[in-house]
Amino acid sequence: MTQEIFTGNFTQTDPLPAQAEAAALAVMRSGRLHRYAEAPDAPSEVSRLERAFADWAGARYALAVASGGYALATALRALGVGPGDKVLTNAFTLAPVPGAIASLGAVPVFVGVTEALVIDLEDLAAKAGEARVLLLSHMRGHIADMDRLMAICDAAGIAVVEDCAHTLGARWNGVLSGRHGVIGAYSTQSYKHMNSGEGGLLVTDDAELAAKMVLLSGSYMFYERHGAAPPPEAFAAVKYDMPNISGRMDNLRAAVLRPQLAELDARCAGWNARYRAVEAGLRGTPGLTLIERPEAEDYVMSSFQFLLLDWVEAAVRAVLDGCGARGVQLKWFGAPEPQGFTSRYGHWHYAAHDALPRTDRVLAGLIDMRLPLAFSLDDCALIARIISEEVTRVAGSRQE
Ligand SMILES: *Cc1c(COP(=O)(O)O)cnc(C)c1O
């Protein structure tokens, strides 16, 4: 029997909406790309994006910045994190997260990951006395029990910054991701849920933190021109104390983002349909562990993860190679060397860490792939068939 092959492109991005194109052209024709190069009577594209995003998130304040990683560092700096301070964060996350902590001269304290791919709340509770800030990464869209997490952090006096690079539009118990902690941070890098190439967004209800973040982002004294910033009084108290660390968003990126916000719900529904198609196709595959999702979680999954728990390295590699040969490119968090976007805490030599054996076990078996909207539901079913066949083949040959 001939084997089925998949010919789609896993690094595919989608074209931007036509309104984004028109808005970008208008910015280019005006020449006003800098956010403070405003037309006399009209708010800038960046201010309008901030207003729209604050409204979307149900937040008092929003700030647009140059990248997701910059947003994280700005949130930490506004909270007073400085050189030598410890910051709790996920052992399972993407490199910009510990990178944001390190950029302040602060020190990440890694909290383990569970088999459900969320932060280990027991490990968090055990380490709660070590820091006064948690930079919480909802890595790959998996959301921990936020009610329990916030109870642990509130009891320990820990401020929570949510890294929602993968949970823009997702909810826990009906509350939007990014609205549980004191600050929510988002990325609009091309492989996230909205795409401006590079970009970041921050939301908070805290006027002092918002004022600090606006000043930190490089506002000079133009803060009154922001679309979703606190009133001038909030700035009076802090404007002499905040360094101007340029990381503003420009009008071109904001112009292409605003129309995407209007399409976000439809796009999230599209990703979830693809996620469920892959999930259904993989269910029941021997040796393959699916990540079961709690009922309180309204996820948005633009990628898919599964576990080959306790498989030896050669067997995992046989699955990756078998799938790769059939056009299904899988990423592996257990690989000895960091590759592409994928690395794990042991690769970040600038950050010392204790051994996390339960985390190592999960990461050693963790397989990951993107789910571009360009894939059809039939594509997703085909991808799942290929993975299932390859896993079954390798699992079978291991038992002989
Ligand atoms: C993408 C990403 C970020 C932010 O990255 P930028 O490329 O700086 O926008 C932060 N956290 C996670 C988990 C990410 O995937």
TrEMBL record:
Transferase as UniProt keyword: yes
UniProt cross-references to Pfam families, sorted A to Z: DegT_DnrJ_EryC1
InterPro entries tied to this protein: DegT/StrS_aminotransferase, PyrdxlP-dep_Trfase, PyrdxlP-dep_Trfase_major
Single GO MF descriptor: transaminase activity
Keyword annotations of the record: Aminotransferase, Pyridoxal phosphate, Transferase
Source domain of life: Bacteria
Claim: Signal is one of the keywords in the record: no
Transmembrane segments: none
Database matches in PANTHER family: DTDP-4-AMINO-4,6-DIDEOXYGALACTOSE TRANSAMINASE, TRANSAMINASE
Sequence similarity: Belongs to the DegT/DnrJ/EryC1 family.
Name of the protein this chain belongs to: Aminotransferase DegT
Species of the source: Sinisalibacter lacisalsi
Gene designation: wecE
